[in-house]
Design goal:
Layout lengths: L10 H11 L6 E7 L2 E7 L4 E7 L7 H16 L17 E5 L2 E9 L11 H17 L14 H15 L4 H21 L6 E4 L9 E3 L5 E3 L6 E4 H15 L4 H18 L4 H24 L1 H4 L6 H11 L5
Antiparallel strand pairs: 1-2, 2-3, 3-5, 4-5, 6-9, 7-8
Helix pairs in contact: 3-7, 4-5, 4-8, 5-8, 6-7, 6-8
Length: 324
């Protein structure tokens, strides 16, 4: 038998497993999306749920998953609208699923009502800024003894560089350029950190797309905390800025309006220091680097067709614009 890097569980297997282990009798299970983890929508006679199956090479230790679930339960108890884990019949939240590549963890979550809404106007950008600030504010007293990677420079720069280097062995001079940019970014954060950078729980993926669901009345639910952890809040916020740069398609005026509205919403709930504001543009570039590493890391799932030399050329052109 040949080795398997990444298997896909069948919808029937998920349905049967949930029926056996939860106080839920699924009527329908649909495979929704494939990515860093696999997501299934589960329906019974009354409600919808989401069943997430974590990749075996992404979340290898149960503690990593347990940290995320403890955070979600904490936020729910704090009154923050989140997609939260559903307990099994035995009271536990985490399932260990044995698959061809070894084992994967699975969790059933409440469904985030509403739908993904483009953050393309100032009103919803301001609302999202308030929602992010509430997340940061409410997690001030969160603690956990579970082990989870911090969103530090090792995670954001050192590890991605290792992945990028392996993918660019045929373009060593170009990798040296990217490495030099990374060193400059790291040095800049190390210059700012002694002056004080806000550190605490971060969502880790606050782009405003596929992490918050809005209903028609603009009530919302946060979801997908898979990359959460302790980190710099300026980094958490920087992902929103980066996402708007991509989604505004070069419209700098719109970008700045959305960014200003976001900051207005955020600072109406929670203060941002001048030092944190100065760090955000640096973290935007760091996020670009981290995403480049992630794309290479996902090659064996999505295939390498989108991460060839054209992809590398595009990223080099982006990093040539770095100004610190």
């Amino acid at each position: 038998m040949l080795a398997v890097a990444y298997s896909t569980l069948s919808e029937k297997a998920i349905s049967d497993y949930i029926a056996e282990n939860y106080h839920i009798k699924p009527k329908e299970v649909n495979y929704l999306i494939r990515g860093i983890n696999d997501t299934y929508v589960v329906k019974d006679d009354h409600s919808k749920y989401v069943f997430r199956v974590y990749r075996s090479d992404w979340r290898t230790h149960e503690d990593e998953v347990a940290f995320e679930l403890e955070l979600l339960i904490f936020l729910k108890n704090q009154g923050i609208p989140v997609s939260y884990p559903i307990a099994k019949i035995d009271g536990n939240h985490i399932n260990t699923l044995y698959v061809p590549e070894g084992k994967r963890f699975g969790v059933l979550f409440s469904y985030a009502d509403g739908e993904e809404t483009p953050i393309d106007n100032e009103n919803i950008s301001l609302l999202f800024g308030k929602a992010v600030a509430e997340l940061h504010q409410k997690t001030t007293n969160f603690t956990s003894n579970k082990q989870r990677s911090e969103l530090n420079l090792e995670f954001l720069i050192d590890h991605p560089l290792e992945v990028i280097q392996k993918a660019m062995v045929h373009r060593s001079e170009d990798f040296i350029f990217i490495e030099e940019v990374a060193i400059k970014l790291k040095n800049r954060i190390q210059e700012l950190e002694p002056k004080g950078l806000d550190w605490g729980i971060c969502h880790g993926d606050l782009h405003g797309n596929q992490n918050i669901s809005f209903c028609n009345d603009l009530t919302y639910t946060h979801y997908d905390f898979d990359i959460c952890g302790y980190g710099w809040r300026a980094y958490d916020i920087a992902e929103f800025r980066l996402a708007r740069q991509y989604h505004t398609n070069g419209d700098k005026e719109l970008l700045e309006r959305l960014w200003s509205a976001f900051l207005e919403g955020y600072t109406s709930i929670r203060e941002l220091s001048q030092n944190d504001l100065a760090a955000i543009p640096v973290f935007v570039w760091i996020r670009e680097l981290w995403l480049m590493g992630l794309c290479f890391q996902l090659r064996h799932i999505d295939g390498g067709i989108d991460t060839g030399d054209d992809f590398i050329d595009e990223k080099i052109d982006i990093f040539k614009k770095v100004q610190l």
